Amino acid sequence: MEFIKPGINIDFVGYRKYAILLSGALILVSILSLVVHGGPNLGVDFRGGTLVQLKVPPGVGIARIREGLEAIGIRGAEVQRFGDPRDNEYIIRVEMAETGLESLSDRIRAGLEKRFGSQTVEIRRVEMVGPKAGKELTDKALFALFFAILFIAVYISGRFEMKWMPSALMALSIGIPSYLLREIIGLSYLIILAVLITLALCVMLRFRYALGAVVALIHDVIITVGAFSLTNKEFTLPIVAALLTIIGYSLNDTIVVFDRIRENLKKLRRRALGQIVNTSINETLSRTTLTSLTTLLVVVVLFLIGGGVIHDFAFALLVGVIVGTYSSIFVASPILLFMEKKGGTGRRRSKR
After folding, report:
1. What's the pLDDT tens digit per position in 53-77?
2. Alpha-carbon distance 165 to 155, whole Å?
3. Least crowded by CB within 10 Å, which of 98, 118, 212, 282?
4. H-helix or E-strand containing 127?
């Protein structure tokens, strides 16, 4: 099926300066939001504590729930609306990890029913994560994202540039020290440093395709996390799963474009690299548009009517699919031009 007629010739490369400005602005806003909010709004999964999801009678709001909690000695709890407003469900988060989950939920239900009436409060879910378990989950989530990006750099370098050995050595030289030093240096700073070293090595070793793919993936992750920070949505384990899904989706789109660029480099030897990149993006535009639209259709349905449990997961995918499609066209491919200019046009010709 051809969604876009063959022969289309949009000058995507010509728009790359505007794309740099747009991406730079989105990343800046994301980082500023994270700084202002003191980082992502971590859920109970990562910071530890107790979560209670309950349904209360219509008309009961956050203020009355909080008053009811304070009356039974639970102070400083976060109360947040959950899911469809018509269901009138709320999430209560308590910092401490209660040892008796049933006793906590019973206390909350009994305390609120004193105010709202007997048999009017329904406890839907109770979860507890200790501080130590929360830290372990945070470490594992950060390492999962980091190693996903690192091994993608190895895969792209090996597949598109046949540099399996240098890229494998690069991954080992960064991955092993990062794992061993995780207890000495703060994990967040360690992974940021390791990602910066990965990018620097990609430039030094001229892993052009890997650099483009990794920059695009980092771009997608930062903007998606920034969207969560801006909307004050909770960052939980399912959101980490969503980020890994976004990485996979964005990488798939990027590989399709890179494959066509590699094929056209052999067929269109006399053309400049910018023209080849443009031609390749236009030739894959129909496939990219169809894939993105069909994926978005499913994600939008999940977001709108999927229910509160997967609402934030669907939101992450919604942002990630849009940003991932954009980055495969306007971020990953222009990196090849950047590397070409950095190395000089003669270097590409000498390799043929």
Report:
1. 888 888 888 888 888 888 888 877 8
2. 11
3. 118
4. strand 122-129
- Of 219, 223, 244, 226, the C-alpha closest to 327 is 219
**CA triple 129-132-134, angle to 5 deg:** 50
User: Is the pLDDT confidence value at 352 over 50?
Assistant: no
Predicted confidence (pLDDT) at residue 319 exceeds the cutoff of 60? yes
Cα–Cα distance for residue pair 113/130, rounded to 1 Å: 28
Residue 301 in this model has a pLDDT that exceeds 60: yes
The fraction of the chain above a pLDDT of 90, given in percent, is 15
- 251-300 per-position pLDDT tens digit: 888 888 888 998 998 888 788 888 999 999 999 888 888 888 999 999 99
Scanning the structure block, which residue is given the tokens 């959101």?
239
Token code pair at residue 229 = 């920070």
79/90 Cα distance (integer angstroms): 7
CA distance 110 to 104: 10
**Would you give the DSSP letter of residue 47?**
H
Give the number of residues written for the chain. 352
Both tokens assigned to 224: 């998606």
Buried b (16+ CB within 10 A) or exposed e, 85-108: eeebbbbbbbeebbeeeeebbebb
How far is Cα 99 from Cα 129, in angstroms, rounded to an integer? Answer: 10
**Angle between helix 311-330 and helix 208-230 axes, rounded to 10 deg:** 140
Give the single-character DSSP code of 39.
Answer: S
Tokens 């229910």, located at residue: 307
DSSP 8-state assignment for residue 351: T
The token pair that represents 313 in the structure block:
């997961």
pTM for this one?
Answer: 0.79
